[in-house]
């Protein structure tokens, strides 16, 4: 039998107050990110902000500087340039662009093809989103998150107890906020694809939390004489090897997407990798302490 | 016991076989399959195979304005016929008649019963189209736009386009696999309102106007000459092309034309691409129907030596001098076209103009090369990810790990099969969803194996350890899957675009996981332990 960890007796709940303060910081950063997204000041993707994005592949690489001056001389303002991880690819985005959709992307493409010759470039993608659509997509995504949180709360409260439901919901919310906050801090783009990554993280974290809860529920039945504090600690230790192995395998698949999945999925995979670490952390240090602290039916020993 | 066991093997095998059958149409053997089967299979999303996703808003308010304008013109004709001193005018969405009289009221009621009198003041009457009629006109305009776009797309030649209405006045158009995306967008979105008007070269202003102006400066020309434009005239612009390279120059030609539209594209019966023998240049030949031909003859007869402007969507394409009366109803539109442009112009003219201008709300275009790059990368990442997990499971759980890997492969197979059977569209986030389903499949097995190890540590026999390990892991797996399924369903319900694609694969992945983990793996374990009592479990 290969074992990563053996019969651990780690006192997870003993450090719960340190953990909870760390959690609070993560959630605050996340809330800040939410506010910035709502105000439209965060680095929003074209799909949320509305605007125009054109991705171009140059067969012989050109300098960003040359692209910038070409566009500026052509009278285009307020654009951002980004070199993609793949060589020779440039993403030009104009957020909240004014005027009729379609004209701007046409102008960008014709300016560049005049300067760098048409045969040298391939238009990889064009995305144009009207302001109405952008805010609708943002709203839809927000409702999707809220609705799934409510669904989780109800199911877990029904299958376990209300305090477990609260723990699971807070932990899940924590994970979504934390990853959003980290993405905001490192200046990554917040777009629809990140939202699907966040939702997947929520799902993963939830699975992880339910596994821990399941063991706590079982141990409460079999070890009813023990204080709740120890039961929670025991349960987490018992499932620790499973937690590590599952996180590791999912992390491996996300890492494979990150390394080989292509430019479109690059940030998506990064979010999932961060999310797996945070999701695992939250089941142990966010969800479980909440269940412990909301429990009045069992004595909680003070250590 | 024995019977139940056989039933489980049968269900695993039939699930695998069915999955393969449904997936077959997506492979190269598709053409040799029976008809009923060929409609199944995985469809690749626009992000994977390249293509265009467009959302347009039909400017239905404009349709109402056009209708009101036509009504006013109709009323003026009737007033003239009946020698009534009255004038109808469009004001916003109202028809204003002055001077107001009982007679004019009667004519309105006869001619346009849908016009209702809103108010009368100072000898003027204000009429408006009643609200149910407004609704009908708007609805009809969207339907008509939809039909016209379908027509154009069909003639352009796109395999499996998706064109449908969304909300009250939006049209969604998906054109998968289109190579020349820019051309397709232009073709779909063009209003294609063809008009013939006469240039007013006799007005003193015509001589003052510059011949051309740099593009982008059109507004300033309009402002500069605003006070001098005769009331029956307007200034229009036309593109200027380099006749050699066909590239649009950054200058626009300036024309003074009479506002009155003499003929429109409504009278066309045919539009085709011809080649001018002298310059070897494509142009579009058009033919009018009987009414149109008569009109055209009249117009050309009355305006010999004047210039006739051929206008498409407010842009003058050409303005040839009328040499003599043209009979027969044939005309041609020239303008230094490329072959593709001439073809597209013929298509839009044939399928008719849109009843109202379209406003682009959304355009997501993925070029074919990026799509191919993405799917290649996605598959590569999927295979590497799966191999890493498979390798790790064998390394960590040995023989049992191999069984878990079997469940994993079964899982991927069934997932692809289910998506094919329901003709789901696979998108990039969808591939990510599949890779994550792999993660969850592994988790189910890890949960069971860890439980079995616990039981073995307690000194149970392999057989007993397997059974109680399964029983104890069951509810954990069930709960964690149901919670994930709830998320997937909610995402599907509320999500749009990529979120939805992810939710579909995640949801199916979770459902199939329950099957492969709880029935697939267990069956293999039972198969091994039923033959002989094993002493040690390789886990």
In short:
The complex is a heterodimer of chains A (303) and B (539). With 303 residues, chain A is of the alpha+beta class. Chain A has ten helices and four strands; from the N terminus they run ααβαββαβαααααα.
Describe this structure in words.
The complex is a heterodimer of chains A (303) and B (539). Helix content of chain A is 66%, strand content 10%. Chain A has 303 residues and is α+β, with helices and mostly antiparallel strands. Chain A folds into two domains: 13-44 and 133-294, Up-down Bundle (Multidrug efflux transporter AcrB transmembrane fold), CATH 1.20.1640.10; 51-129, Alpha-Beta Plaits (2-Layer Sandwich). In chain A, strands 2-3-1-4 form a four-stranded antiparallel sheet. Chain B has three domains: 2-47 and 369-531, Multidrug efflux transporter AcrB transmembrane fold; 61-133, Alpha-Beta Plaits; 190-365, Gyrase A, domain 2, CATH 3.30.1360. Helix content of chain B is 53%, strand content 22%. Chain B contains 15 helices and 20 strands. In chain B, the strands form five sheets. A seven-stranded mixed sheet of chain B has the order 10-12-11-17-16-9-13. In chain B, strands 7-8-2-19 form a four-stranded antiparallel sheet. A four-stranded antiparallel sheet of chain B has the order 3-4-6-5. Chains A and B meet through α4, β4, α5, α7 and α9 of A and α7, β19, α12, α13 and α14 of B. β4 (121-129) of chain A pairs antiparallel with β19 of chain B.
